[in-house]
Amino acid sequence: MEKSKENLRELLSHRSYICYWISGSFSMTASNLIQFVLSLYVLEKTGSAALFASMLSVVILPIILLTPVSSVVGDRFRRLSVIKSVLSATSLILLAFCFRVTFLTDEGLLWIYILVILLEMGEVFYQASESAILPEIVPLDLIPEAVSLSKIDDGIVFTLTPALGTLIFRFYGIRGGLWLTFILFLVSLGVSLFITTPFYEISEGHGPEKQRFIKMISDGLRIIGDDPFLKRIIFIVPLQFLFLFCIYCDSRPFSPCDIKLR
């Protein structure tokens, strides 16, 4: 117990871990927040519970399709570089949508789905590297405390973001939600610049070798193909989403793509 307390005190004085913790907290908050805000927007504009649910479930598609690739990327490339690249790309995507919504005011429902999918694609690659980078930041004897503290933070974020997203959408609408999310991702990116990886080591064969990279991806896809449960999930989820979308289109006198921001 005393050893654990000493490790925790040492961990809390570790600058790179604190930066990692803050950056991850802001990134996770932003990701969950914008997903909930966009779902509420769809519910308000369409009144469709099916489409509201589809906004929360469409994130399954990038997770299923890109997890094998993101895992390989996290193993073959410098994880800190992947994290910074994803945060930079996500910030730019959000900034583009913020300007589009603020100044063009012609955002359709189709573009909302595109934004959700793009953000989830980034999160898949981010999580693959973020969850495995701890051994590069802190000593091995601090890993248990580092993981435990991160899990506590995850629980707090998942609990608070739905309430926060509801308040943001209630008072500031979709524009406020987008701009706040952009700021949160920008803060996450800025803090990540101060993360150092003193325990990073280039192991033998660790590098973006094209043939081995492709082989690792193909091996992951082969594993999915050999698992009947995973194959059913990959086949059923897109069809389920398409079914809900077709039901909505059939029940409305206009196309969902025609819905505009107000």
How does this model look, in words?
- The protein is an all-alpha fold and 262 residues long.
- 81% of the residues lie in helices and 0% in strands.
- 31% of the residues are buried.
Low-confidence stretches: 202-211, 253-262
Proportion of residues in extended strands: under 5%
Radius of gyration: 20 Å
Shape: globular
Instruction: Give average pLDDT, whole number.
Output: 76
Search tags:
disordered C terminus; 262 residues; mainly alpha
Could you give a quick summary of the protein structure above?
With 262 residues, the protein is mainly alpha-helical. It has helices at residues 2-12, 15-46, 49-57, 60-76, 79-104, 109-130, 134-137, 143-192, 210-226, 228-251.
Topology:
Layout: H1 2-12, H2 15-46, H3 49-57, H4 60-76, H5 79-104, H6 109-130, H7 134-137, H8 143-192, H9 210-226, H10 228-251
Helix pairs in contact: 2-3, 2-6, 2-8, 3-10, 4-6, 4-9, 4-10, 5-6, 5-8
